[in-house]
Amino acid sequence: MTDTTKTAEALKRVLGDTYALYLKTHGYHWNVEGPNFKSLHELFELNYTQMWQSMDEIAERIRALGVYAPMGAELAQLAAIDSTDNSVPSANAMVQNLVSGHETFLEGAKKALDIAQEAGDPATEGLLADLITAHEKMAWMLRSSLER
């Protein structure tokens, strides 16, 4: 496997995790309840909107590397984050689940960054560095929203 193919495969996993986390966040946005409804509803919307935009950037980078971007069920298969749980947890559990999802995302994105660095691919490195920064901020904001 070439360095470019390894980088594209790593980006596919990042895209899968982004999609899974997007779905979970959007679902929580629709279903959150409780005294923190308004602030969490707005925070979830901010997060899923940002992830939606980043999915396009990731997929286009995969295409720029000469590989087809995954579609449909393949996205879920690539994800380390489970988005298939249809239960509606408490607002605090939603936040905890999303923090955990962002932590999983960050692990995968950092592995992908290592692969891009080894491949000498500064464009992918920049994309991943921006994604890592964004998800670290999302995780921090969510952690700060947890009830103690």
Automatic annotation (TrEMBL):
Transmembrane segments: none
Organism: Parvularcula lutaonensis
Listed name of the protein: Dps family protein
Family: Belongs to the Dps family.
Residues in Ferritin/DPS domain copies: 9-147
CDD domains named in the record: DPS (cd01043)
